[in-house]
Amino acid sequence: MKKDFNNWLSTFRESIANYTYYVDFDVVYKNFEDIKVELNILNSLVGSKNIEDDFETLIQRYPEVLKCIPILIAKREMDIYCMDTNGAFNYNFKKANYSIEQYKYFMRETGLFELLSNRLVNNLVDYVIGVEAGLNSNGRKNRGGHLMEDLVESFIQKAGFVKGVNYFKEMYLSDLENKTGLNLSALSNDGKTAKRFDYVIITEKCVYACECNFYSSVGSKLNETARSYKTLALEAKGIEGFKFVWFTDGLGWISARNNLRETFDVLDTIYNIKELEDGIINKLK
């Protein structure tokens, strides 16, 4: 029986954020470990009453300490460009390319000397972990883009499919044709389009090519996606032993419901997260 579009849409989720979405602390700790020794050496400058001279002595004895300075201003790059009325400089913190005096100027003008000498932080190790956590939070958009794919894959595996055996991740159309012997030229514009599917599930009765996405906010991308997948659904209808499957969700679709409905009306194998939870992938077997 055909699903009711409005009832189906009413079960869409606001978010699929998991517990590592907000901050990936494994990455935070790894980045910190790479400069832990140098940070502890630099810690000797905290509370210094003669910080410029102490900094110079420190860099002369331990030049490798320079590499942990960028993260103190929330930069991971080893090259930092700065300019003012005294000129333009591109500082290298992996291998010094200016005099110590110039690096002292950098520390002074960025406020790092004040941060250290006035004990605005007590421990650079704790400070850097905080900075890394803040920088890592900026990666939520990239992590979010993979959340739906990861979620779908977990249900594929839960249904008993095995990666590399009867399901495959990120498979190109040409590779799918070679593996299954199917003629998918209708989907590739006779080989002119290099289409790639998020997942391909291969069963005895059918090959399922799957796309996954989640949209929590509005944007033109939703309409483009809906139109594209409507075309794909229509092109796939005439291919025996092949089905196009679309897993999608997110409240962003509320504003683009008309475009989504157009695809919904021509694609029987369009599913949301609730249907995944209800075991829809088991029915693909």
Summary?
By secondary structure, the protein is an alpha/beta fold.
List the topology elements:
Blueprint: H1 5-9, H2 25-33, H3 36-42, H4 51-61, E1 79-84, E2 87-92, H5 100-110, H6 112-117, H7 124-137, H8 140-158, E3 167-172, H9 173-180, H10 185-188, E4 196-202, E5 207-214, H11 220-236, E6 242-249, H12 257-266, E7 270-271, H13 273-277
Parallel strand pairs: 5-6, 6-7
Antiparallel strand pairs: 1-2, 3-4, 4-5
Helix pairs in contact: 2-7, 11-12
What does this structure look like?
The radius of gyration is 27 Å and the shape is elongated. Strands 3-4-5-6-7 form a 5-stranded mixed sheet. The chain has a two-stranded antiparallel ribbon with strand order 1-2. The protein has helices spanning 5-9, 25-33, 36-42, 51-61, 100-110, 112-117, 124-137, 140-158, 173-180, 185-188, 220-236, 257-266, 273-277, and strands at residues 79-84, 87-92, 167-172, 196-202, 207-214, 242-249, 270-271. 44% of the residues lie in helices and 15% in strands. Helix 12 links the parallel strand 6 and strand 7. It has 285 residues and is α/β, with parallel strands linked by helices. It folds into 2 domains: 5-12 and 140-284, Trna Endonuclease, Chain: A, domain 1; 34-137, no CATH class.
The helix-strand sequence is: HHHHEEHHHHEHHEEHEHEH
Helix and strand content put the structural class at alpha/beta
How is the biggest beta sheet arranged?
5 strands, mixed
| Spatial strand sequence of the major β-sheet | 3-4-5-6-7
* Global shape: elongated
The domain tally reads: 2
Total helix count? Answer: 13
Q: Quote the distance from N terminus to C terminus.
A: 19 Å
The helix content is 40-55%
CATH class of the largest domain: Alpha Beta
The CATH topology label of the largest domain is Trna Endonuclease, Chain: A, domain 1
Please mark out the parts with pLDDT under 50 across 5 or more consecutive residues, or reply none.
none
Rg computed from alpha carbons, rounded to a whole number of angstroms: 27 Å
CATH architecture assignment of the largest domain: 3-Layer(aba) Sandwich
Find the count of extended strands (DSSP E, 2+ residues): 7
**What share of residues are in beta strands?**
15-25%
Mean pLDDT across the residues is 92
